[in-house]
């Protein structure tokens, strides 16, 4: 991987991740995520991991993208979700969200420490320099979006983007080592299963209670009549 192409690919990944997480038009955000997953597959191909690129294209782009789009669609008597996320962002800092983010960072630090302790083979310098900053930025975007957004579909997007950032970081530090590729493949399977379950639960929640967040919206108090 040449240095200019590596930096361009890393920049593209960050831009696609940010666009997918910030776009309130849900279908367009899901389509942007599919483009992001395909760009991830290109990164694995250029890192001499063609089978991992194929797994990313099938599990990350095709199947995970289909699960996210399925959450928006209509099937049987389940109503279609609103095309746009109009839920307000968190006004308070929910401790549980930030604790989950810190736990994810701790797990990432453990994985990175294991890679460095095992003295995994590092990739060429230009690939390492480009993938590590891109992975950190993508992971930071995913953590921020997961902690701040309330719409469950957008949290699923943040969950997948966060995992992709960790994969990029591991690949940048560990290179084409078979142990690193195995960890990334397991992560892709876990992300797919989580996305499918999350999409099904979201559709069920919306069908039963008509909401797309875990928090119940406060009921508006009826205004008192004049003279009472």
Give a structural overview.
- The protein is 73% helix and 0% strand.
- With 228 residues, the chain is mainly α.
- The model is unreliable at 119-126 and 218-225 (pLDDT under 50).
- The relative contact order is 0.16.
- It is globular, with a radius of gyration of 20 Å.
> Helix-strand pattern, N to C?
HHHHHHH
- Using only C-alpha atoms, the radius of gyration works out to 20 Å
Work out the oligomeric state of the chains in this entry.
single chain
Helix segment count? Answer: 7
Low-confidence stretches: 119-126, 218-225
Largest sheet: none
Q: How would you state the average pLDDT, rounded?
A: 80
Number of strands: 0
The proportion of strand residues reads under 5%
Distance between the termini: 76 Å
Structural class: mainly alpha
Residues in helix, %: over 70%
Shape estimate: globular
Present the secondary structure layout.
Elements: H1 3-22, H2 26-46, H3 50-72, H4 95-117, H5 125-148, H6 152-174, H7 178-209
Helix pairs in contact: 1-2, 1-5, 2-3, 2-6, 3-7, 4-5, 4-6, 5-6, 6-7
What's the short version?
The chain has helices at residues 3-22, 26-46, 50-72, 95-117, 125-148, 152-174, 178-209. With 228 residues, the chain is an all-alpha fold.
Keywords:
228 residues; mainly alpha; 7 helices; 0% strand; globular
């Amino acid at each position: 991987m040449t240095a200019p192409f590596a930096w361009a690919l890393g920049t593209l990944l960050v831009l696609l991740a940010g666009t997918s997480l910030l776009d309130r038009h849900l279908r367009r955000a899901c389509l942007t995520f599919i483009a992001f997953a395909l760009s991830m597959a290109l990164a694995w191909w250029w890192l001499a991991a063609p089978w991992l690129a194929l797994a990313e294209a099938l599990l990350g782009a095709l199947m995970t993208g289909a699960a996210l789009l399925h959450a928006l669609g209509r099937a049987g008597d389940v109503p279609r979700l609103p095309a746009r996320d109009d839920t307000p962002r968190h006004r308070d800092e929910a401790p549980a969200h930030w604790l989950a983010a810190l736990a994810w960072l701790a797990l990432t630090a453990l994985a990175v420490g294991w890679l460095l302790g095992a003295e995994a083979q590092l990739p060429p310098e230009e690939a390492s320099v480009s993938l590590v900053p891109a992975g950190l930025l993508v992971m930071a975007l995913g953590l921020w979006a997961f902690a701040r957004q309330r719409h469950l579909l957008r949290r699923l997007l943040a969950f997948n983007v966060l995992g992709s950032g960790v994969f990029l970081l591991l690949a940048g530090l560990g290179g084409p080592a078979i142990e690193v590729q195995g960890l990334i493949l397991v992560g892709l399977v876990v992300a797919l299963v989580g996305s499918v379950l999350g999409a099904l639960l979201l559709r069920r929640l919306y069908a039963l209670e008509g909401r797309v967040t875990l928090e119940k919206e406060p009921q508006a108090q009826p205004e008192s009549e004049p003279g009472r």
